[in-house]
Design goal:
The chain is mainly alpha-helical. The protein has a domain at 2-81 and 114-134. The chain has 4 helices and 3 strands, in the order αββααβα. It has helices at residues 5-17, 36-58, 63-103, 117-134; strands at residues 23-25, 28-30, 114-115. The protein has a 3-stranded antiparallel beta sheet with strand order 2-1-3. Strand 1 and strand 2 form a beta hairpin. Helix 3 (63-103) packs antiparallel against helix 4. It starts with a helix and ends in a 19-residue tail after the last helix. The model has no long low-confidence stretch (mean pLDDT 88).
Length: 153
């Protein structure tokens, strides 16, 4: 049951990633807890920690739910990061065009959005939780051995 300390640590990292920025555009940072996706990731991190602690206390296996929690967290982080990146680039383009129209000049180049620390940490932590949950699928093959027979009798 000491193996369940691994998803507890990964759940803490996942919870910490919910408070970090997920997208960075220049000096602006987007994502995290104020957004709905950040709250979901924080809730899933708490659920992963709770399941792992319950497994340690009750000595029961909870790898199936941990697998689902990890997959949900990974999916939410990945999709929200992709959507935030697209929205941030469109917002930058619109702002650049609006300033060019008002000032009567040409549009300034738009900064490309990059993945923030929170998204990287969250994706890594959720991957660790998924890999721990997948250990229930991988079963050890039984060791086949032959018993020696006494042929001399």
């Amino acid at each position: 049951m000491r193996a369940y300390y691994f998803p507890i640590g990964a759940g803490m990292l996942l919870g910490a990633s919910a408070f970090m920025p997920w997208i960075e555009v220049g000096e602006q940072r987007f994502g995290g807890v104020p957004d709905l996706a950040g709250l979901w990731v924080l809730g899933l991190a708490a659920m992963a920690i709770g399941l792992a602690i319950a497994s340690i206390v009750t000595q029961k296996n909870s790898r199936h739910p941990l697998l689902l929690v990890g997959l949900l967290a990974f999916g939410i982080l990945f999709l929200s990061e992709r959507l935030m990146e697209r929205a941030a680039s469109q917002q930058g383009w619109v702002t650049s065009q609006a300033r060019a129209i008002v000032e009567g000049g040409t549009a300034a180049p738009v900064l490309a959005p990059t993945m923030g620390q929170g998204a990287r940490l969250g994706l890594a932590a959720s991957t660790l939780i998924v890999l721990f949950g997948l250990t229930v699928v991988v079963k050890r093959a039984p060791q086949v051995y032959a018993e020696a027979e006494d042929d001399d009798a």
